[in-house]
Amino acid sequence: MSIKPFDTSATNTWCPGCGNFAILMTVKQALSDLQIPREELVAVTGIGCHGKFTDYIKVNGIHTIHGRVLPVATAIKVANHNLTVLGFAGDGDAFNIGIGHFPHTARRNVNMTYIIHNNLIYGLTTGQTSPTSKQGFVTKTSPRGEWSIAINPLTQALTSHASFVARTFSGEPKHMKEVLIKGIKHDGFALIDVLQPCVSFNKINTYQFYQERVYKLEEQGHDTSDWANAYVLAEEWGEKIPIGIFYREERPTYKKNFPVLENGPLVEQSLERDMDELFKEFM
Amino acid sequence: MKCSGLIDDTVTVSIGGEAGQGVGRSGMLLGKSFMRAGFHVYGNIDYPSLIRGGHNYYTLRASHRKINCIPEKPDLVVALNKATILLHQEEVNSGGGIIYDEKERIEKNELSRTDIDYYPIPLIDIVKTLGGPEIMRNTVALGSVTALVGLDPNHLKKIVSETFVGRENIIKMNMEAIEHGWEKVIEYDYGFGCSMEAGVPPSRMWLTGNEAIALGAVAAGCNFYSAYPMTPASQVLHYFTGHDIDTETAVIQTESEIAAMCMVVGASFAGVRAMTSTSGGGFCLMTEALSMAAMTENPVVIMLGQRPGPSTGLATYSAQGDLLFAVYGAHGEFQRVVLAPGDVEECFNLTMEAFNIAERFQIPVILLTDKTVIESHESVEKFSSFVKINRGKLLREWQSEEEYKRYKITEDGISPRIILGTHNAIALANSNEHFERGFATSQAAITKEMVEKRFRKIPHIRNAVEKINPIKLYGSDKPEVTVVGWGSTKGPVLEAIKKLAVENIDVRYVHIRILEPFPQNLDKYLKGKTILFETNRSAELGTLIKLNTGYTFDNIRLRYDGRPFNPNNIIDKIKEVIQ
Fold it and tell me: How far apart are alpha carbons A184 and A252 in whole angstroms?
C-alpha cells in the first residue's frame, strides 16, 4: 500500500542521513498496512528532533513540551478510546525530563505505543550527553566522558510492568515495521525502543556500529512471556545487541480505572447530568 | 448555673480535639443538623497538617439569618480532650460554656473562668456502657450540644443514621449515644439559655467550596478530571474519585501536578471538558503546561486553592498570596481569565462560567480560591440556577473540500476546534509557533499574525467577563467608607457591615470576583474613605488595582497569620479609619 496519504507539505529539516527518516517512513508503512484511517490516529511528540514528527505525518497530532508526551497521550486515549495513540519521544525527552511519567503510564497499561527515538545523545541542542549515553561517551557536556551509568529503556519498561517491551533498529526497516505493527495492535502499553544513529553528533553509535552488533530475538526462539529472561537479554549490550520483542503479556488495561468508558468514548457522551440526584447527599 | 445569653443572634459551637478524634466529622454532622432544623450555618475547620495528634478545632455558627463567617469567640466549646479546655476556655463568650468528659484529669483550679459554665459529661463512660468505640464519644457530646442549644436531637439522629446507612448496629449505638448525651444535660439541669427557633426547614444544602466546585464542574459537563492530592484542594479529587460513576466522569489521580495539567490539555484537545485542581506548590508545577494550553489554544480549567507560602508554608491554613502568581505566572504572553469566588455559591456558579469561558475563547481559566472558601462548610439554598453550556466554536463534522486548519486566522481570533477523530479532518496542535494548519514555524510574518490572532480574542473575553458581574456591591449606597476585598474576605466583611449599619455607620463592600482581565469602572464604586482588606503581606489586589486603574488605597488592613479575617478585624479597622 502507498504511504503517500500520510505525507504532508511541511519541509523536513532533519539532517541528511538521520535515523529519523527511516522511523518516519516505517511508521507510515506500518500504519498503511494496518489500514487505520488517518483521522483515527493521533501522534503525540515531545521536544527534540523527533518532535517534528507531527509535521511530517498526516494524522492528528499534538507537538507538546519537553518530557510530557505520556500524560498528554494518556488523556487523549481516555477522552476518545476509539483513537489509536502513538507517542514519540527522544531519549532525553523520555528518560531525563519525562521519566517521572514513564513507570506510571506503563503500570496503568494505557493502550498506546511509545516509540523512543534513541540516539544516545541530545541532537537538537547540538550534542550534549543523554541519559542513555554509555559510560565514557564524550560530548560537549561530558568532556571527560560520561561518568554515570546509562539508563536502559528496556529494563525501565520491564520493571515498570510495561505489557509490551521491544527494541528495533532504524537500519532494519523491515524488522522495525513488524515490531511497530505488533506494538500498535497490542492491547496495552507498548514500549518500542528504536536504536537510531545521530549522524551529526554521535560518532560512536553509528549505522555500522549497530549493523555489526544487532541480532534478532525472533531468530533465537526467545519466549516473550518469560519476564526474567527478557530482563537478562535487555541487559545485553556489547559485542552483541539483541533487537525484537523482549516481553509481552495480556492484562487489564487503563480502562479498568474508568468505568465511564463502558458507555462509549467520552467525547461522544452527553454533558447533561441529573444534578438533583447529586445534590441529595448534601441536603 | 444558667448562662446569661449570647452576644448576638447567632450561636457558635466549637469542637476541639486531637486529629483522629473525629472533630471535622462531628462539625459536619452538627452543622447539617442545624441546617435541617431550618438554620443558616457556617463551619470552618482549623487543623495542623497531622493525621494523629495535633489540635483540630471545628467552629460552627448557626442563626436564623444568613451566616458568612465564624466569629472571634465561641459560645460553647466541646472539648474532646484536656488540651481543648486549656487552649480555648479564655476565648469563650461570657455566659457560654464548655462540655468535656467528667473523667478528664483536670484540677478545679485549671478551670479558670467564673463567667462561663463547665459541663462535665460522662462521655467515655456512656460509650463504654454502650460497648462502642472510643471515637463515639463525640456523638455523645453532640447529643449534649443539642440539649444545650435547644436543637431537636432528632435532626442529629437522622443525619447520623443516614451516614451509617446499612450498618444497623452502629446506628443503634449512635442513637443511644445521642440520647444519653442529651439526657445528661437535662438530668443535671444544665441550660444554655439560648432559644433556637427556626421556621419551616427550607430546601438547603450543606457543603464546602471544594464540593461546590466539583458540583459546578459536573453541572458544566466536565467529564475528565485529573489531579494530584494537595491540601486544601484534595477534597475536589475526593469528590470525583468517589463519584466517578454517578457523575459519568473519567477521574485519575496522577503522578504529579505536571501530569495532571498535561492530561487536562490532552483531554481538552481530544474534545472533552477537563479540569484539575491544586494549591500553590502544585500550580508552580502546572505553569509549564499552562503555557502549553495557551499556545495550543486548548481550553483548560484549573482550581487553585491558596494556602500560605512561600514553599510548603502552612499547609492547612489560608492566605491570598498567590493572586499575582495566578494572574501572571507562566512563560510567554497570553490572555487568561482568573475568577475568584468568595463563598460556596460563587464557587458553584463561577465554576460553571469557567468552563464556558475556557471553551468559547480556547484559553486557560483559573478559579482562584483559598482554604477558607473551599474547606469551610456553608448552608446555601439548593442550587437552582444553572449556566447554560456553551462550547463555543467546536465542530463535530467537517464536510468542506478545504483542509481543516486548527489555527485558522479569523476575525475574532477564535479558530474552530474539532472533536479529534472527526471524519475528513486532521487536527494538529503545536506548542511551537505555528501555521494555520499547525505546522511549526519560526517565520517572522506568520509569528506576528498568530500572536495577533490570539490577542484579537481579548476584547471578546472582556465583554464576556463583564457579563458575569466581575464586581459585586454590598451594603450602603451612600457609604462613609468603601471596603474592597476578594475571595474569602467577603464573609467577614458582610458580617461587619451589617453590624456597623446598626451603629449607623454606612459601609459599602466592593467584592471583586474577576481579577483578570481586570474589571472596568472600579473607581466609580469607590466612595468615601477606602480600605483594602487582604489576607496577605503585600496587598496583591492593591498592586493589581494600581496597575490596572492607577488607584491607590487610603487605608490597607492585611492579615498574614494563616487565619481568615473575623468580623471584628474589619469593624476595628473601619472605626479606626472614620475616627
Answer: 16
